[in-house]
Amino acid sequence: MSTELASLPGLTKSRIEALSDGIFAVAMTLLVLDIKPPAVIEAAALPRELLALWPRCLSYAVSFLMLGIYWVGQHNQFHLIRCADRTLLWINIVFLMTISFVPFSTALLSAYPLWPSAQTVYGANLIAIGLVLLWHWMYATHRHRLVDPELDDRMNRFVIRRILIGPALFALAIVLSSLSAVASLILYVVAPLIYVLPGRVDRHWQPSAH
């Protein structure tokens, strides 16, 4: 089966990664466009107006980190995925669709940082990304469909648990948004740190990294 999958014309793994890199690059670049220089008529007002941009700057930083985290996650998956099939291609398309929505959900959150509805849309976007990335991994690893047969099942389960941390935290943030918008916002800010810090999965990939 591996030979058949690897030989699909025009649907190689490298092209999937190239498209993904392009979508991530565009989405991450679009984030900063939501931060515009304030219009002031006197120099003394500039510091105050710059300070008023904090919601947009915070949303930009959190979203940029989250996109970076999901890019790393997808990259790590493709490091272990040896070949692709049609279903994996379409799962990846759905994944990229959720990634492309991040600039909008970020702009909404930056405009209304303490509104529960804005926090819910942002959280739902991040949950969708995490769940589709999980679907991507589980499809590729089911019965070692698209990965090496030697892939450690314990590592497989660890990757699944690690991916699920994000959706679980963002679901909690959505629930918190109706109780304490500030607490919900803090959770969105803290959540990326869990993935930025190195874990067991990073040590697993490091020896074979190129």
Structure description:
The chain has one domain (2-208). The protein is built from 10 helices and no strands. It has helices at residues 2-6, 13-32, 46-51, 54-80, 86-100, 102-111, 116-141, 153-177, 181-196, 200-205. α2 packs parallel to α6, α4 runs parallel beside α7 (116-141) and α5 (86-100) packs antiparallel against α7 (116-141). The longest helix has 27 residues, at 54-80. The radius of gyration is 19 Å and the shape is elongated. Residues 1-10 have low confidence and may be disordered.
Largest sheet: none
State the oligomer. Answer: single chain
**Strand segment tally:** 0
- Unreliable spans are 1-10
Structural class: mainly alpha
Helix content percent band = over 70%
Structural domain count = 1
Distance between the termini: 26 Å
Inertia-based shape? elongated
Task: State Rg.
Answer: 19 Å
Q: Determine the mean pLDDT.
A: 87
Order of helices and strands: HHHHHHHHHH
Beta-strand content bin: under 5%
Number of helix segments?
A: 10
Quick tags:
disordered N terminus; mainly alpha; 0% strand; 10 helices
Topology:
Elements: H1 2-6, H2 13-32, H3 46-51, H4 54-80, H5 86-100, H6 102-111, H7 116-141, H8 153-177, H9 181-196, H10 200-205
In short:
Helix content is 74%, strand content 0%. With 210 residues, it is mostly helical.
